[in-house]
Amino acid sequence: MSKTPACGSNDTKWIEQEQDAVQHRMALIRHKVLILSGKGGVGKSSVAANISVGLAMKGLTTGLVDIDIHGPSIPKILGLEGSLLVQDGEALVPVGYDGFLAVMSVGFLLPDRNNALIWRAPLKHGIIKQFLGDVAWGQRDWLIVDCPPGTGDESISMAQLLKTPDGAVIVTTPQDVALEDVRKSITFCRQVGIPILGLIENMSGFACPHCATVVNIFKKGGGEALAAEMQIPFLGSIPLDAAVVDSGDSGEPVVQHEPDSPAGRAFAAIVDRLILKVSS
């Protein structure tokens, strides 16, 4: 990975080289999509992982980059905890999931899962730049970016570095408290010029593991109503399904390992809608 030089006359040239490296690697990727949420606890990382795996299952070469620097959960969700990064020349090789998905996360850089990263904005921007410019992503159909909750430094850095992403998918739950924060994410995307590909309502009712009946514990339909109000596409609802909880703990995404579960079917349908939305 590249190192920050000491201050001097070569700083401008080094910054330009770093930016060129990012643009060179990102030019090889056809579609780049950010996964955002207005607040934590809405299952954004689970959605990002399942969308990524769902795309890869269709034979689309896919990468997943986790920039949730203070709470990287992608390694756990995909069963990749303890994975070690390999360097190929001056580039890092992303960690492989099941032979068909390339993954990068700050979690792979931590010597212990109990370690906390206490970083200010410049360090965050630097690691995100390296995840894009110093990782050997190669030529890919999709790159899914799991952003941290809210509209902070990491999301701003990613928007600036990608320059022209295909857009963002926003994840919410049906409760009013979550929907209020989603409005801020929508405003953020519009202010920085990121197209909004759609809204996903997660934990939309509880799917009984015995009879598959859906009970609306956390209400239902708030995300779809907000999407209509804010004039953005609605990509679908995902029920609160025990299969999702089990798959997240075991590192086996539900879209792959429980495809016939209510959540598995919902994720598959969302992946199809996302592909259609980006293609059109």
Give a written overview of the molecule.
With 280 residues, the chain is of the alpha/beta class. The protein has a single domain, classed as 3-Layer(aba) Sandwich (Rossmann fold). The protein is built from ten helices and 13 strands.
Write the layout of secondary structure elements.
Blueprint: H1 11-26, E1 29-37, H2 44-57, E2 62-66, H3 74-77, E3 86-88, E4 91-93, E5 95-97, E6 101-105, H4 121-133, E7 140-146, H5 153-162, E8 167-172, H6 176-192, E9 196-201, E10 206-207, E11 214-215, H7 222-230, E12 234-237, E13 240-241, H8 242-250, H9 254-257, H10 262-279
Helix pairs in contact: 1-4, 2-10, 4-5, 6-7
Strand content: 15-25%
Task: Count the E strands.
Answer: 13
For the biggest β-sheet, the strand order reads 5-6-2-7-1-8-9-12
Structural class: alpha/beta
Q: Could you spell the SSE succession in H and E letters? A: HEHEHEEEEHEHEHEEEHEEHHH
What is the C-alpha radius of gyration, as a whole number of Å?
18 Å
Low-confidence stretches: 4-9
Spatial shape: globular
CATH-assigned homologous superfamily: P-loop containing nucleotide triphosphate hydrolases
Average pLDDT confidence is 88
Major beta sheet, specifics? 8 strands, mixed
Main attributes?
280 residues, alpha/beta, Rossmann fold, three-stranded mixed beta sheet
Short description:
The protein has 280 residues and is α/β, with parallel strands linked by helices. It has helices at residues 11-26, 44-57, 74-77, 121-133, 153-162, 176-192, 222-230, 242-250, 254-257, 262-279, and strands at 29-37, 62-66, 86-88, 91-93, 95-97, 101-105, 140-146, 167-172, 196-201, 206-207, 214-215, 234-237, 240-241.
